Predict the structure.
Amino acid sequence: MNWTSWLLSGFLATLALSTLLSASQGFGFTRMNLPYLIGTFVTPQREKAKVYGFMIHLGNGWVFSILYVLVFEARHMANWWFGALLGLAHALLVLTVGMSLMPGLHPRMASEQHGLNANRQLEPPGFMALNYGVQTPISVFLAHAAFGAILGSLYQLSRAAR
Amino acid sequence: MHPLEVQKDSQTARLLPDQDPQNAAETVGPPWPQIEDYGIIGDCRSAALVSRQGSIDWLCWPRFDRPSIFAALLDRDCGGHWRISPVGSAAVERHYVSDSNVLETRFTNHSGSAILTDLMPSSSRAARESILLPDHEILRKITCDRGELELEIEFKPMADYGKSKVQIRDCGKLGLRFLVGNAVYWLRSSVALTIADGTAYARLALHAGESLRFSFSYSEQAPAVLTPLDASLDDRIEHSVKAWQNWGRHAAYDGEYRDTVVRSALALKLLSYAPSGAIIAAPTTSLPELLGGDLNWDYRFCWLRDASFTIRALLELDYWDEAEDFLDWLLRATSQTQPRLRILYSLYGDKAPVERELEHLSGHRDSRPVRIGNAARDQLQLDVYGEVVDAAAQFAFHGGHLDRDMQRALIGFGNYVAQNWDQPDEGIWEPRCGRQNHTHSRLLCWTAVDRLIRLDERGMLHGAPVENYKRISNEIRRQIEERAWNEPMQSYVSVLDSDQLDSSLLLLSWYGFEEAKSARMRATHRAIRQHLGTPDGLLLRYQRVKPEGTFAICSFWEAEYLAMGGGSLEEAQQVFAQLIKYKNDLGLYGEEIDAGTGSALGNFPQAFTHVGLIGAALSIDQREKGERQLAHRPPAATEHSASEVRS
């Protein structure tokens, strides 16, 4: 896969992931707002946080897409369902390890152990981000599966074109 | 001046009933507060009603017209409430912190006293840029300032208008949490609460100098933001007081009734919905117009009927931003149906929901049914065209600019009126008994074309078929003068060719159709007072079929009619002074007043009544100073002779 197609497919996959998560939020399935959560790492201003968070999330998406590509190369396998499987594994990692680390990493997030203070006021996600709604894990799994499926498909296409 | 300085007109203390929980098994629950026993707090998105017992008995989040989480106002048992009050008997005094919407309730008994502060906080731009703040929040703080007071805290939320219990989960140091749909509610308390059966409860003694702090918040779209219960909460209360005071003290009125007018302006501001600029009629549903009766309606919508009075009040108190927002909302909300207008709209200009009854609620003091939605949404009321056009005309006459889209919309309304003015309609009082030829509707159709003609004459409106409007204006005038005047009764009448009276006939002068001092208007006023007046100086809105209270705004219309030349300045002042005796201890009015007891009736607090109060106070003040009353009228000094101005 060349750099241009990696950038493009990473961008498209991240866009699809963001769109699915935003749609889940808009339809009331979850209160998890990834751009907001990421953006509040750098600013407490709600609207700015969403913009900054979206840009950082896009960057994250590209970084993660490299990892996906490395796995595709290592396994000599790239298609939509293998990508989706990787996406599900990715989602599991985010929901378990990622979410449990959030209160410790996020400068504005409260924690169930230490409570909150003037700087740490954001509701923590809890196990599997269930604090943000019981359907949150489903949204996250679906969005990441789509992310992986798009990357897998595009990688397969780019290999076929070579 | 200290921001926590109290309002001058704090009132006599009243005793709270005994709420000893040791007797709880024997008692059904605390007695019903009267409607006027409530105060309002809000943040221009939603509002909560707080009783004298320190109980939040009404709250809908995230906006006025969403299902309630506390509705004890409509059902003591299953509505849901959040009470912070002393155990046993206590005297209660309350007031808003001067010129603010921060409510303070003082409980006093033989052992001590405490002050409960209630508010929905506001925040500055600087605060929003430096810290995270909840989208929707109520702050409560109770401080014991003398002796010791035994307190009871009972937090019992009920979802969806009391239909279902919630499951409160104790999240340790983060607070208590429950979910309703996808929304999360967080209660943070500086005292540990015991959870049982969907209720969080505590009973404790508070000693002099001690405080308890609470934050109750709501989040629907994002992870919640939780509030620390340290001294920063006190800073937020103080900031909110200052923010409200800055707003309240901007009111351009320094007349005799300054505190009453500013309180009405603050109440009106609480009924505005900041995201869209809409102003709702009242924050409640189904508070009865007759105790035990079925005249119970949902008022959490925006009636175009109020537009002209509201714009006038805002403009003349120099609240230009609010007036512009409201006018923008009026023209934007109606854009889907223009040139036709509905009589009421939701907060964002949609059609109000279908009316339905909530059979599981007992209603306020057993006044069934409780309704949500409003069936008047399908009524035809031709007066709304005049209200909207007059609102825009007042805006322009005060110096506002009508852009091309606004002008196009106004001309559309004018053309609709020109084609439909002689149709029967439901009329201003929305009786559900069919259409008639209402004089008030004709008056407002005349007002619509008259204002468009005046706007054209002043070069503020371009492209209007003015000659047609002039012809229509003359036709309507002729019809009103011939068919709405009842010679044997010596009065204008509410329906053409009839002998019915209603108080809206006093508005013939307000809109400039006929001078207040004309023989016909004076005779009409006498007839209205004779047939619709009460011995205590109040007015019914019409000759009633079903018993109901006197309609508060009608009485303010009478005061204003007198101030505009229908009587002497002293007469207007007397009527006004009598009316302001009926405000509650916080300066709030409902829709109606029980002539027998003076109690408030109907939804509470009511924007229409407060707008009427402001209008009457303005006209009295203007008469006193010889200034112009109402933007479409000439200066009062030229209208009233010098001797008339004072006497």
Observations:
- Chain B touches chain A through 26 residues (CB under 8 Å).
- Chain B has 17 helices and 28 strands.
- Chain B has two domains: 14-236, 258-646.
